[in-house]
Amino acid sequence: MLILAIDTALEACAAAVLDTDAGELLAQEQLLMKRGHAEALMPMIARVMQSAGLAFTALDRIAVTVGPGSFTGLRVGISAARGLALAAKRPAVGLTTLSAYAAPIVGRSGSAPVISAIDARHDHVYFQIVAGDGSQLVQPGIAPIDEAIAASQFGAPHLVGNAAGILAERWPKDVPQPVTVDALPAPDISWVAWLGAAANPDTNPARPFYLKAPDAKPAALPPLAHAASSS
Fold it and tell me: Which of 1, 20, 36, 167 has its CA 20 to 30 A from that of 122?
């Protein structure tokens, strides 16, 4: 199976092509960035596909991170994945950013749980907790940092995600301490691809996975415009 993977959910723009039969990436590229994903993504995808030596119609599916993350970044990645899937007549699958963070640790963490955490700002984090075998212990959600820490009652965890360092700094001294702290700005694009290969397109659609409403609010109409609209 040939998978094009896309990630623009957080502070990176990344794309890769995975050949599952060969068990390796044919091409990959990642740029760390807080903004500018819309301008960077399509040229990056073109370079990755050219490096892999593939036409889009050779792909079996397209995988994309669907959140939590930046609302703007998510729209960029998901729109690109849907558009390319439509043009190539291939399915697009969506993977959560939290699961992509946890994937490389699950299976090698032993019995230790894995806490994936993403900075949601305002002293909150998006987080989920899975066991060492990948089974879910705490479903994805958003909570104040202290509540997210209190939710971990499963032993010394692995912390991963762009908020892993934030959790580690606030971790209580009188409980088992984190085994590892991987404060990565974005998930590994290769794991987005591998998760995409395993996902069922019928149950993992490429649509946004939001855990809260956007911070931005629609601007209020100026007085004259408001009066005109109500007349």
Answer: 36
